[in-house]
Amino acid sequence: MANADHRQTAHIISHTHWDREWYLPYEKHHVRLIALMDTLLDTLENDEEYRSFYLDGQTIIIEDYLQVRPEERERLEKWIREGRIHIGPWYVLQDAFLTSSEANVRNLQIGHQDAAQYGTIAKVGYFPDTFGNIGQAPQLMKQAGIDNAVFGRGVKPTGFNNMVSDSAYESSFSELVWEGPDGSQVLGILFANWYSNGNEVPVDEAEAKEYWDRKLADAGKYASTGQLLFMNGCDHQPIQTDLAEAIRVARKLYPDTDFVHSNFPDYLASLKSSLEDKQLSVVRGELRSQRTDGWSTLVNTASARVYLKQMNQVGQTILEKVAEPLAAFAHMTGKTKYPHHLLKYAWKTLMQNHPHDSICGCSVDEVHREMVTRFDKSRHVAETIVDDSKHAVAGAVDTSVFANYGKDALPLVAFNTTGWTRSGVVEIELDVARVYFREGIALNDMIRMMKEVSLEGRTLVDADGTAVEHTFEDLGLQFGYDLPDDKFRQPYWTRRVKLTFEATAVPALGLKTYAWVLGAAGGASLPSLVTGSRTLANGNLSIEIAEDGTLAVTDIASGRTYRDLLIYEDAGDIGNEYMFKQPDGEPALTTKGLAAEIRVIEDNAYRASFEIVHHWSIPASADELFEQEKQEAVYYPERKAGRSTDYVPFTIRTVVSLERSGRGVGIRTTFNNQAKDHRVRALFPTDLAASVHRADAIFEVAVRDNEPAAEWENPSNAQHQQAFADVSDGTQGLTIANLGLNEYEVLRDGRNTIAVTLLRSVSELGDWGVFPTPEAQCLGEQTVELLILPHGGDGAATGAYAAAYQFQAPWTLAQTSVHGGTLSPEHAFLAWEGEGIAFSSAKIAEASGDLMLRWFNMRPEAAKLQALPNVGSAAAAYASDVLEQAGERLQPSGEGANGSFAAELGPCEIYTVGIKTAQ
Q: In this predicted model, what pLDDT tens digit does every residue of 66-118 receive, in sequence order?
């Protein structure tokens, strides 16, 4: 045994790990869930010795059950309130690395809200099967009032015979201290023998003896105390209805062991009491199985079905970075009520795609088809909120300054919902004139009137009357309609144009107003950004395109040039949805040296672009041996298949763009994938000397080693990212930002190349059986977007990371009319500053109605935050947490500024502030 206690306690916790969808489509799993829950309620009612059940830490199970069994609500609620069914703290068991920082928080918030309706919340930091664990989990748990984390992956237990672990990612015991980058600590419980180590306990004495001899020894090998944890359940496991009898048999066979049908609160209380004199290992930061052979990390789920990750990036961003702040702004102007109900519905619909077998893209094809519909549903709700909110705020902006240009002035508002001042190229479709069907004009006359509307003589100006370089495209006659709140739909014909221009210095969390007007003088023409047949330059960057399409990008401030950027690489992949495996001995193909077609396709005052076209060919698939190996379920690292000798065309079209005020080089790549069993990456050699690199993770810019640990055998060392990956030597750095491309690798090639995965085509689920997934080959048209950001060595201080975060969020624009209003034509709802600090969210709390603002410190050193909310009424600020609970009131800072406050953020701290207003 791993302890000196005279008696030990076997805590048997009944549960089921419920993947909503995986190797079966959602509804087939759903039917099995109904049967399980029916049996659970009957067992709790008929067997008093069946004491409790843990509902897998996710409240969505309750929703899914009651959707089919609404008549069972009262009985279900009874067992929850009596403490025999334990629920929460999450809404779903998400993959934390592939869902955004705020999505992780919304998941925690909604899980708590849903559980609270039943009078109880299981304060268990439950991560049973996440594919690696985020470094900030301890801080998130502590802020949510949870002092523990129960997880299954990421740390290697060394066992009782090795009392002192020799690594930050090993633990002497299955119990450990997990410390976040900010210093927050929670008690970690590692499922060293997995979350099924107490599954299907025998009732037969002979079978029970063999079972418990093995199970007690296995648990004792890693346990630091006599409090042994046995999880009675597994994936989609029906409950064990004869467990009470099985426990009686175990007690008879092992009189020195106390067998109890336990629960997490009782187990954790007993464990903490027993740990008082124990020295536990401390593991720090991200738990990504760093000290393993690297073949079973499941990290390449980050590149399985990339289209899902891209849709998720769009869905998360529009909710947290556009809909929530815009709805908060509209609420603060008094124009609309904050739509808590709609936002919660949109978030829940999106989060139904966030379980690890869903967003990871590692399920059967039917599952992922349904996910596409959910992404669309959530986005449609979010877009409706955005439309309502932006028009409400635009209606509160004073645009009367444009009355000087006459009745034909067409004002428009550009919204910057990111946390930093922003410049960038924007587009908006404007209705120059409308004629409504209700006016009773003959159809032909309506159409003629709109076609005759003149578009000549117009200039775009800002509120100061300064002309803004722009282009417009005549979209011609268009049909449209209004949906008034108090009338039937109102159809109309309109003459519509699309304006494109660079909005400059739009305030953070604010807006800037322009108008397309008649009679204004145009400004002086600006020099072209195209400086040669294959070169571009603005005041920040210069770009030279080589004959093979690679880029030499020079940071003008430092004079540093990064060469050979944007090489495309193609390699065979005989792995599966979980893990990449390149065929042995087969080198990757690249576009280095492959001549490309290069031409200018855009040359405007605000932006210039080159098109680069590679006409390439790549192997059509893996060879014939691969099909045999899949059918025989050969373990993927041991596969010997190679690539086919048949080739298919692979044409890559790249648009490289530079905006006049831009700090980065925009990359938009499209290709029609007709090849199978391969991976496509974009390579960005940094040629910077560094042993570590940085990547955007969850509320953290994580620092990771370039070289894996000595135990690592996998030739690939791919990692998760959110917004960007970055290599820096301390004085120069290169950040590669992305939209929904969650996998990268820093290559051990002597150049510290950042390799971003654009596509991975595979044909099977993998894991425990033979599950073909032909749609995971991702055939057809693909489009990806990246941003190259050179900087002066510290991406947090120089603003490169801020630019990468802004790259994630779309601009929002709204046409409005000439009118008075309470907001100035250039307005910020929040002014703040703090070096190395990132802004994360602005929303209205449902419980209090307060404005909630969140930042996080990107660096492991203290930082000073100063903020001035511009909420238009008496305000008081208070410290809060991720559950939006009110804490200590913050003292005003500045010269009596309304609602202003200052705070010092600790290293890597997640900092939430509530603002009480009169609204």
A: 999 999 999 999 999 999 999 999 999 999 999 999 999 999 999 999 999 99
Q: Which of 555, 569, 795, 556 is nearest to 690 (CA)?
A: 795
Cα–Cα distance measured from residue 790 to residue 800, given in angstroms and rounded to the nearest whole number:
7
Q: How far apart are CA 271 and CA 150, in angstroms?
A: 13
Backbone dihedral angles phi then psi of residue 175, each to the nearest 5 degrees: -105, 140
Residue 366 dihedral angles phi and psi, to the nearest 5°: -60, -35
Could you confirm whether 705 is annotated as catalytic?
A: no
Gyration radius of the chain's alpha carbons: 29
Edge-to-edge strands, sheet with 863-869: 830-833, 863-869, 901-905
Beta strands in 685-766 (DSSP E): 692-696, 701-705, 719-720, 724-728, 733-738, 743-746, 754-761
The answer to whether 180 and 136 have CB atoms below 8 angstroms apart is yes
The packing angle between helices 365-396 and 340-351, to 10°, is: 160
Q: DSSP letters of 449-510?
A: HHHT---TTEEEEETT--B--EEEEEEEEEEEEE--SSSS-EEEEEEEEEEEEEEEEEPTTE
The active-site residue, picked from 56, 129, 726, 794, is: 129
Could you count the other beta carbons within 10 Å of the beta carbon of residue 642?
18
Assign 675 to helix, strand or coil. coil
What pLDDT is attached to residue 2?
45
Tell me the pLDDT band of 893, cut-offs 50, 70 and 90. Answer: confident
CB atoms within 10 A of CB 471: 15
Q: Render pLDDT for 366-381 as a digit per residue (tens, 0 to 9).
A: 999 999 999 999 999 9
Residue 634: closest CA among 564, 576, 559: 576
Question: Residue 541 forms beta bridges with which residues?
Answer: 555
Q: What angle do the packed helices 365-396 and 306-317 form, to 10 degrees?
A: 20
Mean pLDDT value across residues 219-246: 96
Residue 162 has pLDDT above 50, yes or no: no
- φ, ψ of residue 674 to 5 degrees: the values are -120, 5
Distance from C-alpha of 371 to C-alpha of 375, rounded to nearest angstrom? 6
Q: Tell me the average pLDDT across 572-578.
A: 97
